[in-house]
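tool_call: predict_structure(chain=1)
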Amino acid sequence: MKIIVTGGLGFLGSEISKKLSELGHEVETLSRTNSVNEKNQIKHHQVDLSQKIDDTRIFEGVDCIFHTAAKAGIDGKYNDFYAANFFATKNLLEVAKTSGVKFFIYTSSPSVVFSGNAIKDGKEDMPYISSRISPYSYTKSIAEKNVLSSNSETFASVALRPHLIWGENDPHLLPKVICRHRSGKLKIIGDGLNQVDLTHVDNVVHAHILALNCLITGKPIGGHAYFISQNEPVQLWSWLNFIFTELDLHPVKEKISLKKAYSIGLAAELLWKIFPMKSDLPMTRFVACQLAHDHWFSSDAAKRDLGYEPILSMKEALDKTMPWLKSL
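tool_result:
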């Protein structure tokens, strides 16, 4: 089967590409970056999906697209998120359908149902985010809606919502938290007892492969979204402090209230909007809520329809990742 993986040079995309190649599929990657995936000998195409795709020869004979490319982050202009997340997905869907692609697997995010409230055992029937408090979350939500509404008898589209992907070579989640802690800028928000589900990249890749196999065998998963989780919520701050201790860093003890962090986030968002700065926002309202609230999701639907179960437990995942963290 010929498969294109967008964002194929990124953290998740490269792991999916590698696994698909190992399984014998003909894999090509696509992103805005002009680079060569020399390690896996996978052909790469430089394409800006936010622009009209004039050269559609890349998609000739393609059976499936894994769309992992996205603009993530907690700050930035809404229009940039809209172009990278919604418009790029819209363009890709159009060229996929006109090129005869059969299957479309979209990497979404649980943040598409962000409401500012705690989420425990979240299910897929939760309503989509209704505000633009997080440009990333909002644009991913409208992109997901477009993906799912594109499903038809000849074009099967599905969305996977992996929660907080982490693991070796992760350029974002844990390295950024550790860096912030080393600089003395990390504080516990709220009471520090909130539970969160973080999903190791191996489990996320596994879920994507299962979705492909379901589509190939004709299982009726098209038009549906699925939460993908580790199925082992952890007490976030205790878990982070365990990692810090393993890295010979002192545990985080200082706390600030959610109300204060939320107010700081609002002030920072307004200030950065009026006076754009090169440095990242120190806090946002979205991040304040995420760091203080419970947010973990049920993968029962993924288990029922995809046959998904984590292939790595939380302990196994941390044991696998810790040597890499120590090497940074």
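agent: The chain has a mean pLDDT of 94. Proceeding to next step.
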